[in-house]
């Protein structure tokens, strides 16, 4: 895989050409900034920017004013190759709080080994209704230790209003939910995105995460997607590398919370 060419394709199709990621969301291109505005429970933020040292601070101030006017917390999704080189420092100086660094990883679906199955006693089932979404949220809270109420609403809205653009899966040990994940599908784009894969602590290290990646990869292949992309944590990156994913760049969420 030509890493530079694939990263350029990702920038063009998934960032510059970003589409709304849920009901009620809209994507706007304002000068050198591509941003999404969504309902309060959705994702609000800057998807891409093409700035330089002369205009970066003004663009940052403009986005702060815009989202603050809406009363929205928002994220500036910064990638390691974005310019200017000190954009992260400028965001912090403007009041943003950086989250953990992650790694943008990409794999060609055709080159992945898709035969990985869950361990004995665990089965993977699709999530299509409110009851399933509730179980996904339960896993999310146990795996990540965070409140999943916003995620629950986002996923249910997406499955209800636009089910062809999201695939949610659940791993069950007997009747116990032990792992969950989703995949976002952008019609016409070459990339399918893997998100929110998490396994509850007592079930980690048994190959369930790998099985959920393989399951979603098979779905992506069936639907004609060429690449899978993941924002990988330090914990999931080694697993994904063994599966055939390559690191292209880093990504860091910078979050701005308006004063109340």
Tell me what the structure shows.
It is built from 7 helices and 12 strands. The longest helix is centred in the first third of the chain and has 15 residues, at 56-70. The model has no long low-confidence stretch (mean pLDDT 95). β2 (33-37) and β3 (45-49) form a beta hairpin. The chain folds into 2 domains: 3-103 and 251-256, Aminopeptidase; 108-249, Aminopeptidase, CATH 3.40.630.30. It is an alpha+beta fold and 260 residues long. The radius of gyration is 18 Å and the shape is globular.
Which CATH architecture of the largest domain is right? Answer: 3-Layer(aba) Sandwich
CATH class of the largest domain: Alpha Beta
Q: How much β-strand is present in the residues?
A: 25-35%
Content-based structural category: alpha+beta
Quick one: overall form?
globular
Order of SSEs, N→C?
HEEEHEHEEEHHEEEHEHE
Total strand segments: 12
The residue fraction in helices comes out at 25-40%
Fold blueprint:
Blueprint: H1 3-16, E1 26-30, E2 33-37, E3 45-49, H2 56-70, E4 74-79, H3 87-93, E5 97-98, E6 102-108, E7 122-127, H4 130-144, H5 149-161, E8 166-173, E9 176-185, E10 191-199, H6 208-222, E11 227-232, H7 237-243, E12 246-256
Parallel strand pairs: 3-4, 10-11
Antiparallel strand pairs: 1-2, 2-3, 4-12, 5-12, 6-11, 6-12, 7-8, 8-9, 9-10
Helix pairs in contact: 4-5
List the defining traits of the structure above:
Aminopeptidase; alpha+beta; 12 strands; twelve-stranded mixed β-sheet; 2 domains; 260 residues; 7 helices
């Amino acid at each position: 895989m030509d890493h530079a060419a694939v990263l350029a394709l990702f920038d063009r199709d998934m960032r510059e050409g970003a589409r709304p990621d849920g009901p009620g969301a809209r994507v706007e291109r304002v000068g050198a900034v591509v941003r999404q505005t969504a309902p309060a429970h959705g994702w609000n933020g800057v998807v891409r920017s093409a700035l330089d040292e002369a205009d970066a601070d003004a663009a940052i101030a403009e986005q702060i004013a815009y989202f603050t006017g809406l009363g929205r917390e928002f994220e500036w999704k910064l990638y390691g190759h974005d310019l200017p080189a000190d954009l992260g420092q400028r965001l912090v100086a403007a009041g943003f709080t950086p989250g953990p660094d992650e790694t943008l990883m990409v794999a060609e679906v055709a080159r992945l080994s898709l035969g990985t199955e869950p361990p004995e006693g665990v089965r993977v089932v699709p999530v299509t209704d409110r009851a399933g979404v509730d179980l996904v949220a339960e896993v999310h809270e146990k795996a990540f230790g965070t409140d999943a109420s916003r995620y629950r609403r986002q996923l249910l809205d997406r499955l209800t209003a636009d089910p062809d653009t999201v695939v949610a899966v659940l791993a069950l040990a007997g009747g116990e939910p032990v792992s969950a994940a989703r995949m976002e599908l952008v019609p016409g784009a070459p990339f399918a995105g893997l998100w929110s894969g998490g396994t509850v602590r007592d079930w980690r290290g048994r190959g369930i995460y790998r099985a959920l990646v393989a399951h979603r990869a098979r779905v992506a292949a069936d639907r004609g997607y060429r690449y899978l992309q993941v924002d990988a944590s330090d914990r999931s990156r080694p697993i994904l590398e063994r599966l055939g994913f390559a690191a292209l760049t880093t990504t860091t969420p910078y979050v701005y919370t308006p004063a109340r």
